[in-house]
Each structure stands twice: as structure tokens, then as C-alpha cells.
Amino acid sequence: MSELNGPTRVVVVDDQPLIRAGFAMVLAAQSDIEVVGEAENGADALKLLADTKADVVIMDIRMPVMDGVEATRQLGERPDAPRVLVLTTFDTDEDAFAALQAGASGFLLKNTPPEDVVSAIRVVAAGESGVAPRITRQLLDRFAGRLAPSAPRDERLGLLTGREREVLELVAEGLSNSEIASRLFIAEATVKSHFGKILTKLDLRDRVQAVIFAYDSGLVSPAD
Question: Over the stretch 72-89, which tens digit does the pLDDT of each residue have?
């Protein structure tokens, strides 16, 4: 939710007016969501968001002038940046993974039912990942080797305890909190506590970023 527990503020970015209008119509029916702006490309979105506070941005990937991946990357460099849900046609889209690497918290298929769009916005606004862990892992397996060179181990790994590293590895494998708890013979609440500390220590926002960090840091690889 936005400041003072008001409605979740959403900006819709797409080069097709009908798609923007469709999202605006669906979201206008929700008492806890408010569309505070629209833009037709990434460059216009960055200008709009310089003056307009938003909690979530629905960002198309393929747009003229500036695409959604670059806009997401630049937006993520700003303090208190809104969370981004990118729009894609296929859930195995290479650009969808590139957007996650750029800092998006999840993605939506363009044929996603309206109720699922609303649910995804609420999930992301609450600080959770808008994409299932296993899908993130599948994208890693499919594209990560081509999109980024092998990197030396990130020094931030040294901030984690042994148990936290174990949890991070299992998160990167696509396991849920309950599955991790079962694997490690600990309570699910303990898993959540460990994961919260991982996000804080590594300065990450959500599960998607944690999975990508695990790959980029060399902790896991698509071949694992």
C-alpha cells in the first residue's frame, strides 16, 4: 500500500492506447488501487515518475523510444523506486528474464485474466515477488548463461551465515518456504526469518532478486 495506507498507486506504461485503457478500466473498479498515470514508452514513463509517486508500474517490454527493460533498469537506480511488473507475451521470453535482471519484481502475460492482474499488483505492492520461484529458476536455466558472463563470487556472500546460504541456495532452486522447512527440518517461520535477514544483508527487495543474486554471485548456476 502507498503512504498513509491509501490505495496502491499504479502507473501503466504501454505503447498501445487500448491496452492502457483496458488496464485503467479494470483497476478503476478496485477500491484499493488507483491509476495515477499512463505513458506510451519507457522514456515518457521515467519523466512521469520523476514527478508522480507510484507504488507499482505495469511496464510493457517492447516499446519505441525506450523499451521496458532499460526503463526498469533506470527506474531501479532511483531512491524509493516503485516496483515493476513487466508485460510479456510468453512466460519463456528472454526479455522477461532480462527485465527481472534489471530489477522487475515479476511479470504478467498480456492475456492474464483481470482478477490475476489485480492480485499480482497487490502481491508486489506488499513486497512479495510477482512470479513463482520455479518460473524464475526456469528462466535462469533457459537464458542466464547467455545473458550474463560467469562472475566471481560476490563479496556479499561473506555476510551470510552458513544456514542463510543454505536457505538462499534452496530459494534459488525454486523451493517454497514450506518446502525449504521440510528439507532443512526447521519451522517455516524460521525459514521466513532467515530469508528476511538474507534480503536485509544483501540489500535485495524480493525473492526474484534473491534468485538472480544467487546466480550472479556464483553461489548456484543454471546447471546445478
Answer: 999 988 888 899 998 888
